[in-house]
Amino acid sequence: MKRRIHLFLVLLLIIAAVASFWLMTTDPAAEGEPVVSAPVDESLKSLNKGAAVSAPSDLVNNVSTVRVPEQLPASLAGTSVPDGWARTDRFGNLVPTPHLRQLFEYFLSALGEESLQALVARIEAALSGLEEPARSQALVTLGNYLEYKLAVSELEQSYGEVSGLGAGEMQRRMSEIQALRRTWLDADTAAAFFADDEAVDRFQIEKLRIASDDSLTDEQKAEALRQAESALPEPLRKAREETRRFADYEQVRRELADDPRALDAWRQEAFGEAAADRLARLEEEQKSWDRRWQVYSQERDRLLSSGLAEPERQQALERLRASHFNEAEQVRAEALDSIR
Predict the structure, then answer these.
(1) Distance (Å, rounded) from C-alpha 212 to C-alpha 206?
(2) Mind listing the pLDDT tens digit for each residue in 210-232?
(3) Which one, of 76, 149, 62, lies nearest residue 110 by Cα?
(4) Which residues pair with 229 in a beta bridge?
C-alpha cells in the first residue's frame, strides 16, 4: 500500500512539472504553427529514469543488521560467482540481463544453508560494485524479484497437483505466472529474466496439444513437434539436440558396456573424434572418482564412528580426503559430505 501511495505521489509531481512547463511556454498552435513533439534530450531521459526508481523492498537494505559468514555456503564452495551481469547504458542506468537473474539465483540456491537475509546481504555486496544510479536500480530489481518469488510460490501452492494437466489448464497457469512477473518487474526486466523460460513453457504446452490431437498421425505429430521446436531460441534448440544425443549415448553405452571398441566407434561417429576422445576421458575420470569415493566413504564412516573429539575428527577427515583426492576434488568431497 505504501508503495502504491508513493508511486501515486511521484506521478502527481511529474504531471505537475509537465503542466508548469507547458504553461510557461508559447503555445505554437495559437500562432498558427503545427504542433511538433520536441526531441527529448537523452540526458533528460536518463534523469527521468533514475527519478522513477521506487524504494527498495523491505527484503533488501538490511546489511547492517545481518551477520554474513566469511565462508560461502558449502554448496557454493569451489564455484565462481556468475559474471556478465554488471551492464549499464552510457548514462549509468542498469541494463537488465539474464546474467543478473543468474547472480540472484546463484546465492539464493543456498537457501536453507544460510538465512534469506544473509544471502540477500551477499547479493547486495556484489551489487555494491555498481555506480549510481545502476546500484539503486539493481537493489530495486533485487527487491522486486524477491517479492515476485514469494508471490509466485504462493500462487503455485494454490494450484495443487500439477501432473496430468491438459494444455488449456497449463496455458491458463502460464498466463497467470507471466502476468505476476510483469506485476513485480518492468517489461524489460521480465523479458530479460524469463524469455527463455517462457519460450520453453510455450513449447511444452504445444507438445501437449500435439500429443492429445487424435486427428494427427504419428508422422504428422513428429513433424508438428519439429516445427514447435524450431520456434525455440537457438541456444535452447541446440541444448535439446545435445540432450537427445546424450540420451541416445546413454542407451548405447548400456547396450555396448561389454564391447569397448564398438562403443568407442559409436562415439567417434556420433560426436566426432575430438569430442569422443574428451568424452572417453571424462568417463574414465568419473569411474576413477566413483571408485575412490566408495573407498573414501567407507573409511569416513569408520572414522566418524570412532569416537574422536571434534577437532581431531575434523583434522582426520581432512587428511583422509587428501589421501584420496586432489585439491579440487577435496572441495567437492567436502561439499558432498556436508549434505549427506
Answers:
(1) 10
(2) 999 999 999 999 899 989 988 88
(3) 76
(4) none
Instruction: Please tell me the distance from the alpha carbon of residue 246 to that of residue 257, in angstroms, as a whole number.
Output: 15
Measured CA to CA in angstroms, residue 103 lies from 100, 125, 155, 262, 288 at distances of: 5, 12, 24, 43, 33
Range of the domain at 115: 2-30+39-160
SS3 call for 26:
coil
Q: Is the residue at 167 inside a domain?
A: no
The domain tally of the chain equals 2
Spatial contact of 124 and 60, defined as CB atoms under 8 Å apart: yes
Please state, in angstroms and rounded to a whole number, the distance separating the CA atoms of residues 27 and 36: 11
Question: HSE (CB half, 13 Å, CA atoms) of 261?
Answer: 0
Place of cell 564412528: 305
In a domain, 221, yes or no: no
In a domain, 145, yes or no: yes
Write out pLDDT tens, residues 285-337: 888 999 999 999 999 999 888 888 888 888 899 999 999 999 888 888 888 88
Q: Confirm whether 262 is domain-assigned.
A: no
> Cell numbers at residue 187, please?
517489461
